[in-house]
Design goal:
CATH class: Mainly Alpha
Number of strands: 0
CATH architecture: Orthogonal Bundle
Order of helices and strands: HHHHHHHHHH
Helix content: 55-70%
Number of domains: 1
Structural class: mainly alpha
CATH topology: Hypothetical protein af1432
Largest sheet: none
Strand content: under 5%
Length: 235
């Protein structure tokens, strides 16, 4: 198979298993990550096919949704798609290693990746930022049954990988435990430049969110005071 056929086979499979997924890890997320990774690779280098395949396959057996042996499942999928000959076994081992370790697992995981893995990691993190990142965050939070925000619990500090995966907290909390940290965790200069605008947009969004929240809370307090006053007057 030539690179174009390999790419087409993987794209067709990933699209078929991820189109319509509702947590923000759908086919369009994968497609955006592959496009961003290609753009970064053009500037930063790396094997283009390896970058593309890593990007296309990066969420197929994501640990958030798959409880089995993701490494073995990826290896089996490579065989099923007939693309094993695209790279040596050593390179495939590297691709699978990158896929298993490029996800964000809190502030605790800084596993070294190949140059291609770093590019895909940057692309994946860029898609978690900015306007699309905000939309994906609330989509994921809704599917997981999270509150949008709860001022009574405030910002929950996450101190371990286990807490990152298991502690119940609001969707707004995710901005502080992940999204606002991503700009300073990019691997490449190209990604860092793209991240700047997206980071500023998230800061602006949060400022507006809390301004509106405080405004509605103050309005509610005034309404309650007014109702209470009228009730006292009528009594």
């Amino acid at each position: 198979m030539n690179p174009a056929d390999i790419s087409a086979a993987v794209r067709e499979h990933v699209r078929s298993v991820s189109l319509g997924e509702s947590t923000g890890h759908d086919w369009w997320h994968v497609s955006r990550v592959a496009g961003l990774a290609a753009t970064i690779s053009e500037a930063e280098g790396g094997d283009p096919l390896r970058v593309e395949l890593t990007a296309l396959l990066h969420d197929v057996f994501d640990e958030k949704f798959y409880d089995g042996n993701a490494g073995a499942a990826l290896s089996d999928l490579v065989e099923q798609l007939g693309i094993r000959a695209a790279f040596s076994d050593m390179v495939w081992d590297g691709i699978i290693y990158d896929i298993l370790h490029l996800g964000f697992k809190g502030v605790f995981d800084r596993t070294p990746l190949s140059p291609e893995g770093q590019i895909v990691q940057d692309a994946d993190r860029l898609d978690a930022m900015g306007a699309i990142g905000i939309a994906r965050t609330f989509a994921y939070g809704a599917v997981k049954g999270q509150e949008i925000y709860n001022p009574e619990s405030g910002c929950v500090e996450i101190c371990t990988p286990e807490e990152y995966r298991n502690v119940n907290r609001s969707t707004i909390n995710h901005f502080y435990e992940k999204l606002l940290l991503l700009r300073d965790r990019m691997n490449t200069d190209t990604a860092r430049k793209i991240a700047e605008r997206r980071h500023r947009f998230m800061e602006e969004y949060l400022a507006e969110f809390f301004a509106e929240w405080e405004y509605t809370v103050s309005c509610s307090r005034r309404d309650q005071d007014g109702c209470a006053g009228k009730k006292n007057q009528s009594g």
